[in-house]
Amino acid sequence: MIELEGVPELIDPVMVAAFEGWNDAGDAASTAVAHLEREWKGEVFAALDAEDYYDFQVNRPTVFMDGGVRKVTWPTTRLSVVRVGGDKPRDLVLVRGIEPSMRWRSFCNEILGFAHELGVELVVVLGALLGDTPHTRPVPISGTTSDPDLARRMDLEETKYEGPTGIVGILQEACAHAGVPAVSLWAAVPHYVSQPPNPKATLALLNRLEDLIDVRIPLGELPEDARAWQVGVDQLAAEDSEVAEYVQSLEEARDTAELPEASGEAIAREFERYLRRRDGASGPPGGHATADGSDGTSYRREGPSGRPRPPRPPKPDPEADSDTGGEESSED
């Protein structure tokens, strides 16, 4: 039984989830949700019982000192609520944790129980995978769903993926079976520089999320961090002629593939984002929303509701299959 005492009524809530592990290349997805928690000062209102879902020999607890007292932090998944301010306020239910080691169906059912009790109208799961994409180009973001109607309404791809999946794919399918609209947003991270953090991929996920749910997300230092990350990788790649040559081949392949898409739609999307950010300066920039309604608006429910050196890449082999399925095989 899920107890939600003390959690206020929400406005048009959207659940945004990310999980560390197999579906989180470069920690891009989990860092995106952590950014939302930090910028909007989210407060945790629930945590799943770690004993039910985690193998502590795989994800070990950590010990820390708090005022001279030793305490233990257990690996788990936590939920928080933040309010996005502005002319049309809405609430986000943020889910951040580690991919569970076991009982995935029970895990998803528990997450969906919270979604049901809170009146969540849409679930967005963030993921990141390794792909043959150059770090010098915009991060490819794919939005997928298993709901054909939702795919048409939100300009998403209907997933056709077949193969091994992670908790992102399982949660999206659980939502589909429960009748909860669900979307996955995937960032493709260059496989030759996969070490976390990857602020450029995190920024790209947040920009796509902003477009999808029509909110203005305060980005803080992320744009500058993304630029610094790219400059750092540029410098490291320049020190190795084989890496530089490989990056150039990826750039050529990417530019050739995307040439027809350098059209009005992509340009218009970026221009609309620029206008929203410029016009949004007159409103509350991000709202500094918290779960206690400190922005002065009472809660209510409306509607149905370091830089590591990149390893030397292998010579590309068209016959070989990527461990992650490549950037074109985002699961869901």
TrEMBL record:
InterPro entries: Proteasome_assmbl_chaperone_2 (IPR019151), PSMG2_sf (IPR038389), Rv2714-like (IPR008492). Residues 319-332 have a biased composition (Acidic residues). Signal peptide: none annotated. SUPFAM superfamilies: Cgl1923-like. Residues 277-332 are annotated as: Disordered. It holds the Pfam family PAC2. Coiled coil: none annotated. This is PAC2 family protein. It comes from Streptomyces edwardsiae.
